[in-house]
Amino acid sequence: MKYKMIAMDMDGTLLNSKKEITERTKLALKKADEKGVKLVVCTGRIFTSALYYANLIGTKAPIIASNGAYIREKDNNNVIYEKALDKDYVEKIVIKAEGFGFYPHIFTTETIYSKKLIYSSKNYTLWNEKMPKEERVKIKIVDDLIEIAKKHDILKIVVMSDDVEKLFKLKQIIKDNFEVSVFSSFDNNFEVMARDISKGNAVKVLADFYGFNLEEVVCIGDNENDISMIQYAGLGVAMANATEELKSVADLIIDSNDNEGVAKFIEEYIL
Q1: If phi over 0 gives left and psi between -120 and 50 gives alpha, with beta otherwise, what is residue 67?
Q2: Predicted confidence (pLDDT) per residue in 122-178, tens digit
Q3: Is residue 1 over pLDDT 80?
Q4: For the chain, how far is it from start to end, CA to CA, in angstroms?
Q5: What does the pLDDT look like over 105-114, one tens digit per residue?
Q6: Catalytic residue positions?
Q7: Last residue of a domain, one of 194, 222, 238
Q8: Cα dihedral across residues 29, 33, 37, 40: positive or negative
Q9: How far apart are CA 20 and CA 32, in angstroms?
Q10: Mind giving me the DSSP string for 117-150?
């Protein structure tokens, strides 16, 4: 078998626009798993959220969460890799984001902190309403993010806004002035992680963990934060709905997330 591990982004890739995994996709993934292929969920989402979808597809492989800042076994507490942001950087970036009038969110391994229920925290709150208590993401609205950052390891900072031009300006300032990794998963956000953190680095960590070489690894994605893993993989796959930047570095372009592109790829190339 040529390909032994498939790392899949979630939003815009594995999930359709309704945030669902279709039955056809579940079946294709189940058959790939039965053939011995390691199916890896690789996402910018917090681990708890990624775990829910990993359980849906039945994968036994570890989960890559927070854009590669956290890799953990799915069914136990064994953390394979974790790297937090420098606390001084967290403080300075939070201050800059708030100075722009934004509400940054800071993420630990299991909790999202924000000063206001907006964007990420609001979306996860709505998601929690559909989840059983043990599968909900912890969300805490606080008065001072910097005080929280002093007490906890922060895996990433997320800044979202409908003012995309202003958001891009802040993103560029952070990229130019701090030794951190900065990626966007949607047009209206950017995420800040520790230096050298990326999905590509995380996929390499897992490939080494299993003893796979890069030619045995497939990565599938759709946005800027997926580029590093697409470039790393033996076969880098872009969704039809992917950004043009990601498509330009991919080896293969498949159907869109709303047309079951992942299922079709697995049926043709794996099964």
Answers
A1: left
A2: 999 999 999 999 899 999 999 999 999 999 999 999 999 999 999 999 999 999 999
A3: no
A4: 10
A5: 999 999 999 9
A6: 9
A7: 194
A8: positive
A9: 19
A10: S-THHHHHHHHHTTS-GGGPPEEEE-S-HHHHHH
SS3 content of the chain, % helix, strand, coil (to 5): 40, 20, 35
The candidate with the shortest Cα–Cα distance to 50, out of 64, 31, 34, is: 64
Compute the radius of gyration of the chain from its Cα atoms: 18
* Cα 56 → chain centroid: 17
Domain of 124 in residue numbering reads as 87-194
Based on DSSP, count helices (H) and strands (E) in the chain, helices before strands.
10, 14
Strand 105-107 relative to strand 156-160: parallel, antiparallel, unpaired? antiparallel
List of long-range contacts for 166-173, beta carbons under 8 Å, 24+ apart: 166/100, 167/102, 169/100, 170/96, 170/97, 170/100, 170/102, 173/96
Q: Using a pLDDT cut of 70, give the percent of the chain over it.
A: 100
Residue that the structure tokens 């005080």 belong to? 147
Whether the per-residue pLDDT at 70 is higher than 90: the answer is yes
Q: What is the CATH number of the domain that holds 134?
A: 3.30.1240.10
- Are residues 221 and 164 located together in one domain of the fold? no
